Amino acid sequence: MIRSNYKSETLARSTSLSTEKASFGVSEFTHWFQTFEQDVELYTELGVDSIELCERKLAKDPGQAREQLAFLKMQGLAVSSIQPRVHALFQDSMCPELLEPKERMCEFRKSIDLMCEFFPGVPMVTISGVAPQFNFQLAHHTARRLYVELADYALDRGMRIMFEPLHPILMNNNSFICTLKEAATLLDSVERDNFGLCLDLWHVWQEPSVEEQIQALSDRIFGVHISDWPEDQPRCLGDRRLPGEGCIPLSHLFRAIEKTGYQGSYSLEIFSELTLPDSLWKQDPAEVVERGRQGFYNAWMNRMENKETTSRLPKH
Q1: Residue 257, in any domain of the structure
Q2: Does the pTM exceed 0.70?
């Protein structure tokens, strides 16, 4: 196990802060090149509250995957959310080979069947993917129809689905729904209590009146992803910073989220690129978690005090 030099010091601080009932988790995407078992071991050793499980790290053989899920359950590490192997309705960068939405939703159903056995009620993430041939009308109509079917299938198995709108820089790459307003419209159309929202702050922080929009979502928020935006803009689509090391006004957003009554996990989700000289995917895995956790708790503790400067608020 790779250990951070300042693990014990940071863990002691974050443990005392956790009395504020803020749950810190880590998405397995944060450690892209580790195995599933390495992730579970690392997060357990560091005392992380929860894990966002990424199915693509599991074996493709169902029997082996079940053994891995049983191993996770035995460790006692809570699962905050699940990223299915095929999580986009239409084509996306993680799974470009499947073309038909119905075929992709069939794969999603297989993921539901696997996960409900071990983690009933845990929300599973979905994104829209790209609109086929830029036919946005067809894409929206298809989403409204097929997500109803998926939500009903999940409900019958005691599972929830949470839709994640992505930042506009990912338009026509991984998503055609890139605003909270569009995502809320989709939720209204699906109209199922088990179909909610995955709120990724990296994707939504620049939206106008974002705090008001978040509060209006109320109990529709099923999960939250955290990271930070580079001060001088991203150098590529996967260029994220750890909380507190960028320019997102996290404390303001945490305050807005808390006002909705959300009490779930705040999951550190880091994407990066190995071509970046300071890529977080190349840094010490334990240190990445510790810095992310400390940055999260610093922002969390400041959420009611307005200590962040107004210059960090998005300008419109």
Answers
A1: yes
A2: yes
